[in-house]
What we know:
This protein is mainly β. It contains no helices and 11 strands. Helix content is 0%, strand content 51%.
Amino acid sequence: QVQLVESGGGLVQAGGSLRLSCAASRIIFSFKAMGWSRQAPGKQRELVALITSGTSTNYADSVKGRFTISRDNAKNTVYLQMNSLKPEDTAVYYCYASPVNIGVPDYWGQGTQVTVSS
Length: 118
């Protein structure tokens, strides 16, 4: 079992930045992937970014060039640096862990709200 705790969400003006953190309750260096998804009101949850155990990354087209995912295995923590935020980035952001299969999130955090005002 893995507990994931997100932090760093909040209210920011368009063009601003936030850094989300996801702290895991156990060692993550062997996990195949960790990532972030988001869900806006009335919309389906969508993948935002993921990072593999080999530190390869993948991003949704809507955030490429603005968001950066990273992981600190020594701290069992994954980060999402979000720059040049837009109102359409407003959503609840969820951290997830895929210990075995890159494409299968087995564990989810409780979510953190990000609100971008125009």
